[in-house]
């Protein structure tokens, strides 16, 4: 087989970059035999030459001058695994500007500056590939962009943050509180010391924006995404969910309704029989609903150095192939699609209220719901300290109406606390 | 966006061909807007012009001369959805010979004549794409060939036959017997009147051969696949499996062990917590174990006209793109890899025996197992009509040794019946 030599420059050498360098250095012969592509690692830009991660890399490849790597005319492809907006953005623009395709794992950058970067790639006639930016090692971007290029996709549901899935799985499996499960995730390295990006949904929102781009060709930025964290989920919600036949999952929902795109991130009640319900621990999964293809799910490891490096390697081979035959692969057209506000969402809801245990309370609550056209599918009352806990599941209702209910319920004398409001998805 | 016009010839117009024609005719504008590709359906070869499936297709497109469509120089791409070996083989060779890429859904043909067809495609410098041949609408072939091109894949486990998964799911859910579940599947159209190809594993074996080709670059034909049907699974096996923490699933197993490729199809005991265990009814799923990527699963509808047509459409867009930029996409190198016989398999086994209920029986049975180095992990005894049923789960043992045990157990006086021998996979 004819061999193609591809000179690779690597920007960043953390978890992912280190794993990729190791793959290229240790496994290059096998990759060449299988694919006909010789991937030569020629330069690795690191922040400091003395960092331990760089130890297994031949010292002559290391440099602290990332800008020189990005612009180097003797490289064929650049991989960016630094993360964050700058200097990654400037470096990627420099690489594309000098005619090199770029592979990146940087969801944050794509979700904030995607349009600028894709325009630069198109102007250069070069690939900007990003399989690793969403759901780590799971092949998702290429199937959506290529295998499903002609498919009319209705909705994508993703468990795209392993930390929050791990926390909610631990709460469900062991009855742990949110704080206990978070502390355990932190001690195991599944959650950062400052867990905000994960538990408040910022990480998932960036990935949701990238999915909206790939699945619907929609220009969506991270700031457009309706976002809710998992911090308000209590152990009692987990128990109630189980009794009602649901599992609480941290979801990204990207859907097209009447020509508008809704993108949101929040915990959701998923029916126990739904394929997403059995996606546990730190696994990621993305569930796709299409007109012709029906239901699909992609499951795997959403994070970690080696799985993410595997996705980068797949892109690297793709970029190398495209470079040899014509410059760039297919890029679906991006559209300015109207955004659908979460206020217009129609969903069933799970709602809990802690109330005084006295006659007339249910009547008052039901009055508020009825006034806003929210109809109740089921209601259970449980004893609680000096009162009762009411657990409602509604029929599909309008988010705007539901939020108006919450306002009025807060104001009711007999309502001591409005607990979780959790959307039902996939029923 | 620049538009590319692609003239498509369709060979066959059954479930899949009809659904594809409808997609191209009804949805062409949307596909063109999204992808920049105008897919013009120019000819549809049918067996008879009067068949109802062809009714929604403009009559001027219909022809009974498939050979003329395959060879037509005014077409750009040919889609083959006739199925079976001939005339599909001759038609595909003619289309490739006249310089046209071919998209096919024909697992049987690929699993028997794959080498000849891929050589013809390589000689022509044209694509032969076959996403729809395995697991219907699930994007599997492209992720394996491209996203995971550099990955060291260890094993692929597939539920690739919806009929047998449906039958075993019904047995598990409702305690139905094999015959009852089969009859129900037939009445719902999930099983053919002659179910041999599904229940004896021929369909899954062809798909397993195609997976071996794509995931390992191995030249494997359908006849190389070790194959066992599901007909021997009894309702009591389903009950025992559940009690032992397993679910019985119809699996295709393709693995590389010490440089040799094992390919087999048989029912298997899958741990209840394994992602494949919750793949129910007629869903298909393929589970991939790789060195860097870890565990992946692809789930979806493995059959049906619309999902399969969706996969064909994805290939059609890919072939059209490749044609415009360079002729053909990437094709991994095929290798002549040594085959690993199932005799060399090391697996845990589930085994049931119906025995006379008298002292010394277990001693005799344990003697046979011990003589062949088969060590028992658990044993349960249940009362049975005029005797007892022994349910064993072994520690990992050699298939060859296990088969020798079966021979000797058959010959034991006290053993009335040797029941299921089911391999444990995924534990």
Automatic annotation (TrEMBL), chains A, B:
Pfam name, any one: NAD_binding_3
Protein name: Homoserine dehydrogenase
Positions of transmembrane segments: none
Enzyme's top EC category: oxidoreductase
Pathway: Amino-acid biosynthesis; L-methionine biosynthesis via de novo pathway; L-homoserine from L-aspartate: step 3/3; Amino-acid biosynthesis; L-threonine biosynthesis; L-threonine from L-aspartate: step 3/5
PROSITE patterns according to UniProt: ACT, HOMOSER_DHGENASE
Superkingdom as given in the UniProt entry: Bacteria
Entry-linked PANTHER family: HOMOSERINE DEHYDROGENASE
One Gene Ontology term of the molecular function aspect: homoserine dehydrogenase activity
Annotated ACT domain residues: 350-423
This protein's UniProt keywords: Amino-acid biosynthesis, Methionine biosynthesis, NADP, Oxidoreductase, Threonine biosynthesis
UniProt catalytic activity: L-homoserine + NADP(+) = L-aspartate 4-semialdehyde + NADPH + H(+); L-homoserine + NAD(+) = L-aspartate 4-semialdehyde + NADH + H(+)
Species: Acidiferrimicrobium australe
Protein family (similarity comment): Belongs to the homoserine dehydrogenase family.
Enzyme Commission no: 1.1.1.3
Purpose of the protein: Catalyzes the conversion of L-aspartate-beta-semialdehyde (L-Asa) to L-homoserine (L-Hse), the third step in the biosynthesis of threonine and methionine from aspartate.
Cofactor: a metal cation
């Amino acid at each position: 087989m004819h061999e193609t030599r591809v000179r690779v420059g690597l920007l960043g050498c953390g978890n992912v970059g280190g794993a990729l360098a190791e793959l290229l250095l240790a496994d290059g012969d096998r990759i060449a035999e299988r694919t006909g592509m010789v991937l030569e690692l020629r330069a690795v830009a690191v922040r400091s030459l003395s960092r331990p991660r760089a130890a297994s890399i031949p010292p002559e490849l290391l440099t602290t001058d990332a800008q020189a790597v990005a612009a180097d005319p003797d490289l064929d492809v650049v991989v960016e695994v630094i993360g964050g907006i700058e200097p990654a953005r400037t470096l990627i623009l420099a690489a594309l500007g000098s005619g090199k395709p770029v592979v990146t794992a940087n969801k944050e950058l794509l979700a904030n500056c995607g349009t600028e970067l894709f325009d630069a790639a198109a102007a250069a006639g070069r690939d900007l590939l990003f399989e690793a930016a969403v759901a780590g090692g799971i092949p998702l971007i290429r199937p959506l962009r290529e295998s499903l290029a002609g498919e009319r996709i209705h909705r994508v549901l993703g468990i795209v943050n392993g930390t929050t899935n791990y926390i909610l799985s631990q709460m469900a499996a062991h009855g742990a509180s949110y704080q206990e499960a978070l502390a355990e995730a932190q001690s195991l390295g599944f959650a950062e010391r400052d867990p905000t990006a994960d538990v408040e949904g910022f990480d998932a929102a960036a990935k949701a924006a990238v999915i909206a781009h790939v699945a619907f060709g929609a220009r969506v930025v991270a700031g457009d995404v309706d976002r809710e964290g998992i911090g308000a989920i209590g152990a009692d919600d987990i128990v109630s969910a189980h009794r009602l036949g649901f599992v609480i999952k941290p979801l990204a929902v990207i859907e097209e309704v009447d020509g508008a795109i809704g993108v949101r991130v929040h915990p959701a009640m998923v029916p126990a029989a739904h394929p997403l319900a059995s996606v546990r621990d730190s696994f990621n999964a993305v569930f796709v609903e299409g007109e012709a293809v029906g239901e699909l799910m992609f499951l795997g490891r959403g994070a970690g150095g080696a799985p993410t490096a595997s996705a980068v390697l797949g892109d690297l081979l793709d970029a190398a192939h495209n470079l040899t035959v014509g410059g760039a692969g297919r890029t679906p057209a991006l559209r300015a699609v109207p955004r659908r506000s979460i206020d217009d969402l129609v969903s069933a809801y799970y709602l809990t209220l802690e109330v005084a245990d006295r006659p007339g309370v249910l009547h008052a609550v039901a009055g508020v719901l009825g006034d806003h056209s929210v109809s109740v599918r089921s209601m259970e009352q449980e004893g609680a300290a000096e009162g009762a806990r009411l657990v409602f599941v509604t029929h599909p209702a309008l988010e705007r109406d539901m939020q108006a209910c919450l306002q009025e319920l807060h104001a009711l004398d007999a309502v001591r606390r409005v607990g979780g409001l959790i959307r039902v998805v996939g029923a």
